[in-house]
Amino acid sequence: MNTTKALFSPLEYFNDRILLITGLAASAAGLGLSVGFDVAQDGIFDLHIARLPFQTHLLFLTGNIVLTALGLFLIGKIINPGTRLIDMVKVGMIARIPLYLAIPFIGNRKMISLTERLVRQTTGNSLPQLEASDMALLLFLSLVSVLCIAGFFVLLVNGFRVAANAKKWQHYLSLAAVILAAEVLSKFLYAKMVALF
Amino acid sequence: MRLPVICPSCDTVLQVSTLTCDHCQTTINGSYPMPVFLRLTPDEQEFVMKFLLASGSIKEMAAQEGISYPTLRNRLDELIGKIKQLQQ
């Protein structure tokens, strides 16, 4: 087995039990990180600093996995009638692992204080004063965020390709449309649900 | 030794023309089409054998092979497509 290929396309190389256990363990870790670092996963691929109760973090995380899995399953079934929901649930859980890795970078004290300082400075219609160390920190965070988002999409696309046996460009275009729709729907649903609670 | 199934000169599927009994050396000449199974690659033949030995269960075979169900199902779908093409 090619290790690099297996890391970027785990659904192709690992058996179902390992994938399910990894997905569940990663989701539990992701929830723990969200609660511990006060980072809300309030969208399919969104991470924001927000102090929220445990049940809201749980709602966001579950909602993200369910919406992703249902969206992928919907187009997967059209592409290949043999597509299984459980495979898409695994894709939905495993693809989020890179996003969980970004949480400690986004929610650490240094980053929060820098963000708060920048927000304070920009409220008075003046340009924020950035020191070299601040710039370096922001650049580092941007790099980490971009890599984590890229990792999320690589795992998502590869997982979808294997689970639905997608081959044509139209399949990938419909995947992009479904993920965007799920992102919009998640924002709408979470706003309604948080208001209800 | 691998059984050749494609003509090395013109890429046409070969026909079976001579069969010999190893015991009494009887030889039968004719023109028999190559069975579909033999026209698959050795890897594909091995896959079909494993699938058969797993009682036709992809789930069982995935557990034996240590790879995921959709990976095996995709390989099976591709093989079904190829066999349908060969039958035509």
Features:
heterodimer, A: 197 residues, two-stranded antiparallel ribbon, B: 88 residues
Describe the protein.
The complex is a heterodimer of chains A (197) and B (88). With 197 residues, chain A is mainly alpha-helical. The N and C termini of chain A lie far apart (48 Å). In chain A, helix 4 packs across helix 5 and helix 4 (54-79) runs antiparallel to helix 9 (169-196). The mean pLDDT of chain A is 90. Chain A has one domain. In chain A, strands 1-2 form a two-stranded antiparallel sheet. Chain A has nine helices and two strands. With 88 residues, chain B is an alpha+beta fold. Chain B has a domain at 37-87. Chain B contains three helices and two strands. Chain B has helices spanning 42-53, 58-65, 69-87; strands spanning 15-20, 27-33. A two-stranded antiparallel sheet of chain B has the order 1-2. In chain B, a hairpin with a 6-residue loop joins strand 1 (15-20) and strand 2 (27-33). The longest helix of chain B has 19 residues, at 69-87. Chain B starts with 14 loop residues before the first strand and ends with a helix.
Layout of helices and strands:
The complex is a heterodimer of chains A (197) and B (88).
Chain A: H1 3-8, H2 10-13, H3 16-37, E1 39-40, E2 48-49, H4 54-79, H5 85-94, H6 97-106, H7 109-122, H8 132-164, H9 169-196
Antiparallel strand pairs in A: 1-2
Helix pairs in contact in A: 3-4, 3-5, 3-6, 4-5, 4-9, 5-8, 6-8
Chain B: E1 15-20, E2 27-33, H1 42-53, H2 58-65, H3 69-87
Antiparallel strand pairs in B: 1-2
Which radius of gyration of chain B do the C-alpha atoms yield? 17 Å
Shape by Cα distribution of chain B = elongated
Q: How many helix segments of chain B?
A: 3
- Main sheet record of chain B: 2 strands, antiparallel
**Rg of chain A computed from alpha carbons, rounded to a whole number of angstroms:** 18 Å
- The separation of the N and C termini of chain B measures 28 Å
In terms of structural class, how would the helical and strand content of chain A be classed?
A: mainly alpha
